[in-house]
Design brief:
With 416 residues, this protein is of the alpha/beta class. 42% of the residues lie in helices and 13% in strands. The protein has 15 helices and 14 strands. It has helices spanning 7-12, 31-44, 73-89, 96-110, 148-151, 155-162, 180-193, 208-215, 222-242, 270-273, 287-300, 320-327, 353-362, 376-387, 398-415; strands at residues 21-26, 49-52, 64-66, 69-70, 115-119, 137-140, 172-175, 198-201, 265-268, 278-281, 309-312, 333-336, 369-370, 392-395. The strands form two sheets. It has an eight-stranded mixed β-sheet with strand order 4-3-2-5-1-6-7-8, sandwiched between helices. The longest helix has 21 residues, at 222-242. The two termini are 40 Å apart. Keywords: ATP-binding, Ligase, Magnesium, Metal-binding, Nucleotide-binding.
Length: 416
């Protein structure tokens, strides 16, 4: 069960100083990418930087990085144990995510980071990461419909939760391509809390042209360009106060090398497929991100007379029909799967594969293959066979992406 609120995390971090400056990032889509781009830039500037994103992909500790490297497992468990001891001794009853957030912040302190790049877990206003009272800058990315049961059913209601990370005297940078209603909510909230400024990208971002001159490539989609610009503006704001002699434009070449697994990630699955086979992984799990992925696939991967083979899993509660509508095309192949248990998030459950297949048939995708939960390796082999050299994509859930990456890691270890 998800219980939002700051009371428990505040008690958990009581008497724990946060001397490092933070880039705090909220939004429905793109916030993880913004964090990855920002930390890559800071690392290129030799700034001791920590990054905290969620959910983890393979191991629970890989969501915490120091200078672009995941923290050591033993170190993570040591700090986590100390946080859990405090939670139990003071009967705080913190949630799993609150424990994780406190662990990340304690690790940042021990590593003496200078800047922390922190992604909101869910929402913003009542998210555990909003215990950050004095961030250097806040960022609000693209707003879409997700977690409506907790955040509201309209873009404006959801935006109000995301805007909750704004702070008095702290500048905020936001995705200017959001709907008019969302932008009005952001502007109103910025005035209400007394934010130092609200910069909308790209219309208010003067150096956007300079950014594109350095990093723009033909293969970048509009949303990737937007996320790069948001990250650049956030880093520029931090540097202007903390490292005024460091030119942020010098750090831009590091962005194309930023690694953000599970988002338009191409990888070879030879150890699972038995041959040199490419697969695209994307954790698109809501309508907006599915639309972006569908556009990318239509423009970059679809070949004449060559259907796309999809491996799709979803979390319960998602709008199956809408998500599939943005991805599937007539003639595509679909293998519906169910991701396994998510460590530390027992409330997350997979949608039944039968339900996904039923929704696909409703869209006219009748030639579907079905693999239920239990043997993802078998499902991948079936997918490779059905794809027959055509595009192969896993999508619909970051938890499915995690399962595939974990399976690939295990297979590679066994082959050594």
């Amino acid at each position: 069960m998800i219980e939002l609120g700051l009371a428990r995390i505040t008690r958990l971090l009581k008497n724990t100083p946060i001397p490092w400056r933070a880039i705090h990032v909220a939004g429905t889509n793109g916030k993880g990418s913004v964090c990855a781009y920002a930390s890559a830039m800071l690392n290129a500037g030799n700034i001791n930087c920590g990054r905290f994103t969620s959910p983890h992909l393979i191991d629970r500790w890989d969501c915490i990085t120091i200078n672009e490297k995941s923290v050591d497992e033993d170190f993570f468990r040591e700090v986590e144990a100390a946080v859990k001891t405090k939670d139990q001794s003071e009967d705080i009853q913190a949630s799993e995510f609150e424990i994780l957030t406190a662990t990340a912040f304690e690790i940042f302190n021990r590593e003496k980071i200078e800047i922390g790049v922190v992604e909101v877990g869910l929402g913003g206003r009542n998210d555990a990461t909003n215990v950050l009272e004095h961030p250097a800058v806040t960022v609000v990315t693209k707003i879409g419909k997700d977690h409506q049961s907790l955040l509201g059913s309209t873009f404006e209601e959801i935006a109000l939760h995301k805007a909750g990370i704004m702070k008095a005297g702290v500048p905020c940078i936001a995705d200017g391509s959001n709907t008019t209603g969302v932008l009005e909510v952001l502007k109103s909230n910025a005035v209400e809390v007394g934010a130092a400024s609200l910069l909308l990208v790209p219309q208010d971002a003067d150096p956007a042209g300079q950014v594109w001159n350095v990093v723009a490539k033909e293969e970048l989609m509009d949303h990737q360009q937007m996320n790069i610009c948001l990250a650049f503006e956030a880093v520029k704001e931090v540097l202007s106060h903390c490292y005024p002699s460091l030119d942020p434009l010098r750090l831009l070449p590091s962005i194309p090398n930023a690694v953000w697994p599970g988002r338009l990630q191409n990888l070879t699955i030879r150890s699972l497929a038995g041959n040199e086979r490419e697969m695209l992984l994307d954790g698109a799990h809501n309508n907006q991100s599915a639309e972006v992925l569908g556009t990318y696939v239509d423009q970059k991967l679809r070949e004449k007379h060559r259907p796309v083979t999809w491996m799709i899993a979803m979390s319960k509660g998602k709008d199956i029909h809408e998500l599939l509508y943005f991805l599937l095309r007539s003639g595509d192949n679909l293998i519906a799967v169910e991701f396994g248990p998510v460590e530390g998030m027992p409330w997350v459950c997979p949608e039944e594969a039968d339900s996904i297949l039923g929704a696909a048939r409703g869209l006219g995708i009748s030639d579907s293959s079905q693999i239920l939960s239990g043997d993802l390796a078998q499902a991948l082999q079936v997918a490779v066979r059905i794809a027959d050299g055509g595009p192969l994509i896993a999508a619909g859930s970051l938890y499915l992406v995690s399962d595939i990456l974990r399976l690939l890691k295990q297979a590679e270890l066994l082959s050594k």
